[in-house]
Specification:
The chain has 1 helix and 10 strands; from the N terminus they run E-H-E-E-E-E-E-E-E-E-E. The longest helix is centred in the N-terminal third of the chain and has 9 residues. A hairpin with a 2-residue loop joins strand 7 and strand 8. It has one domain. 6% of the residues lie in helices and 45% in strands. The chain is globular and about 40 Å long. The protein has a 5-stranded antiparallel sheet.
Length: 139
C-alpha cells in the first residue's frame, strides 16, 4: 500500500482529471537519493533520482490489470506486480504515475511505495510486489 499519496493527485481526483483504469499507469523506480515530498507533482520533479542500470529503461513499466475495488468503505487501486528481467539495479522506492498530460500536469505522480531499505538485483529479475490491499487505498 502507498506510503505517500501526492497532493496534486488528490486534487486531480477531485477535479475529475483521472480515470486510472483507462489511463496509462506506470511504475518507475527511484534510488535512495530521492527525498520524498507530497508537494512533488510530476515525473520531472523526481527524474533525477530514477534508477539507471541494465534491464531498466527510464520511465519504468506500464502496469497491467489496473482497476478499483471496494470493501469496508474503502476504495483500493489494484494492479499487477511489475518486474524487470535481466536487470542490474538498486532501488529504494516504487513511483506510480500517469503517462498523460492533463490539467497542466505532464506525467502526474500518483503515489510512492517505500521498500524500507535499498533492494537490488544483479543480472536477475527485480519485482515490485504490491500489498494485498492494493497499490493505494482511499479511506
Amino acid at each position: 500500500m502507498a506510503d505517500l499519496i501526492f497532493t496534486r493527485f488528490k486534487e486531480g481526483l477531485g477535479r475529475g482529471f483521472f480515470d486510472l483504469p483507462a489511463d496509462t499507469v506506470r511504475c518507475a523506480l527511484l534510488t535512495n537519493a530521492y527525498a520524498p515530498s507530497a508537494s512533488h507533482g510530476v515525473l520531472a520533479d523526481v527524474a533525477g533520482s530514477e534508477v539507471a542500470g541494465a534491464g531498466y529503461a527510464a520511465g519504468g513499466r506500464t502496469l497491467g490489470g489496473v482497476g478499483w475495488s471496494t470493501a469496508g468503505g474503502k476504495a483500493m487501486l489494484r494492479a499487477n506486480d511489475p518486474s524487470w528481467t535481466e536487470a542490474t539495479i538498486t532501488a529504494r522506492y516504487a513511483l506510480i504515475y500517469l503517462a498523460k498530460t492533463v490539467g497542466g500536469l505532464t506525467n502526474p505522480l500518483v503515489c510512492l511505495l517505500d521498500f524500507g531499505a535499498d533492494r537490488g538485483v544483479t543480472g536477475g529479475t527485480f519485482t515490485v510486489r504490491f500489498d494485498a490491499s492494493g497499490v493505494l487505498t482511499l479511506e
